[in-house]
Amino acid sequence: MMNEIRDAVLGGVSDPACFAALPVPESYAAVTVHADESDMFDGTPSADKDPRKSLHLDEVPTPEVGPGEALVAVMASAVNYNTVWSAIFEPVPTFAFLRRYGRRDPLARRHDRPYHVLGSDLSGVVLRVGPGVSAWKPGDRVVAHCLSVELERPEGHDDTMLDPEQRIWGFETNFGGLAELALVKANQLMPMPAHLTWEEAACSGLVNSTVYRQLVSRNGAAMKQGDTVLIWGASGGLGSYATQYALRGGATPVCVVSSPEKAELARRAGAELVIDRVAEGFAFWKDEHTPDVAEWRRFGGRIRELTGGDDPDIVFEHPGRDTFGASVFVARRGGTIVTCASTSGFQHSFDNRYLWMHLKRIVGTHFANYHEAWQANRLVARGHIHPTLSRSYHLEQTADAVHDVRRNAHQGKVGVLCLAPQEGLGVRDHETRRRHARAISLYRPGTTS
Ligand code: NAP
């Protein structure tokens, strides 16, 4: 049955009735972690927790489609860092999220299972929609963003990220995108950009939406033309999109990376000001407890040297503990440190004198609301922002892909082919693709300027 679905998609069938008539398999292949293995890394140092030990490829039952939901045939997905967190059971096993969600109502109870299907990105084709869904129909080619909300309470009706029942699909809910099928709320769906392949289209949803809110939206740093933006991890998932938003928005990115290859990539993306933090030996802690203020100063001096004297209006933060003190220090008087993560540790330390005396702001941000995600996807569809896919793996190799991201051996985004048998399929608008060919393949190894 799965082959029938795959063949219909690859054969270009677009008639909604044909898709609605395709039988839905009772089970499907999915990348999971298991609840009874949640303690497998107890006592193991964090750096030694290997996602390849905890991730499985299982055949799991297909969930029923509830009101307001859609079942999607997943052609491709992508690895996000949240899959790394799920796979190493840090900071807590994600089964705690599923159990809490399961207590909410009978429909949510479906999510509380002894396995967790991971993944917060997809591109694919709608197979079924539940009662009450009118915006999407079987056969629609879609990508999904990962915001799952209930919106039964007033708090979320200004900005849906403030809904008390806000969850990240495939991380705090089950039935994620690293699978042949996925269950989403229909208000997670967005049109698939027609000039992209399945795997290119699948890799933007989470990071692109996050960066749009973090950097561009009024809910984040509200970047404007002329701003100087310090971007940590500029060739990674978030950073590769942040660099594009800064450049396209008339700002000046200062890109921080950790190798000559990554520095070269940032330059190819159009950044002129690049700091290789490893080559230049930046280390912001003398030991586990003592920040190195001299290093903050040296880093600030290096930024001024590159910018001709400007301090960053915005610091795009996500490494967390290792860098946060330096980020607060180097932001300009009145500047904004906008943070969405703490990869290196979530207990941050900074000298508050540099914050209050210089009237800086720290802004916390998290994913994006539907409107922000839609705006971000529209920029991809229009060829203003491009996917930064560097490599794709097949579904059965997902654990290796996650391992690569875990050890920071990747660049840009890492894709996963689910029902798509190979890379390069799914493009409908070849003319737009031709116009942006170089930008789309920029993060592929072997691409030269
Ligand atoms: P990624 O693809 O691994 O990129 C992160 C980059 O950060 C790396 O390429 C690395 O670049 C840099 N980095 C890592 N550790 C660092 C350190 N100790 N000091 C300085 N730089 C460091 O991951 P991502 O997709 O961009 O995600 C980054 C973080 O954001 C993760 O923790 C993820 O869970 C989180 N996130 C949060 C949200 C949200 O909505 N809240 C959304 C997306 C991601 P170099 O080594 O080249 O410097």
From TrEMBL:
<feature type="region of interest" description="Disordered">
    <location>
        <begin position="39"/>
        <end position="62"/>
    </location>
</feature>
<dbReference type="GO" id="GO:0043880">
    <property type="term" value="F:crotonyl-CoA reductase activity"/>
</dbReference>
<dbReference type="InterPro" id="IPR011032">
    <property type="entry name" value="GroES-like_sf"/>
</dbReference>
<dbReference type="InterPro" id="IPR020843">
    <property type="entry name" value="ER"/>
</dbReference>
<dbReference type="InterPro" id="IPR051603">
    <property type="entry name" value="Zinc-ADH_QOR/CCCR"/>
</dbReference>
<dbReference type="InterPro" id="IPR036291">
    <property type="entry name" value="NAD(P)-bd_dom_sf"/>
</dbReference>
<protein>
    <submittedName>
        <fullName>Crotonyl-CoA reductase</fullName>
        <ecNumber>1.3.1.86</ecNumber>
    </submittedName>
</protein>
<feature type="domain" description="Enoyl reductase (ER)">
    <location>
        <begin position="50"/>
        <end position="416"/>
    </location>
</feature>
<dbReference type="InterPro" id="IPR013149">
    <property type="entry name" value="ADH-like_C"/>
</dbReference>
<feature type="compositionally biased region" description="Basic and acidic residues">
    <location>
        <begin position="47"/>
        <end position="59"/>
    </location>
</feature>
<dbReference type="Pfam" id="PF08240">
    <property type="entry name" value="ADH_N"/>
</dbReference>
<dbReference type="InterPro" id="IPR013154">
    <property type="entry name" value="ADH-like_N"/>
</dbReference>
<keyword id="KW-0521">NADP</keyword>
<dbReference type="InterPro" id="IPR010085">
    <property type="entry name" value="Crot_CoA_red"/>
</dbReference>
<dbReference type="Pfam" id="PF00107">
    <property type="entry name" value="ADH_zinc_N"/>
</dbReference>
<keyword id="KW-0560">Oxidoreductase</keyword>
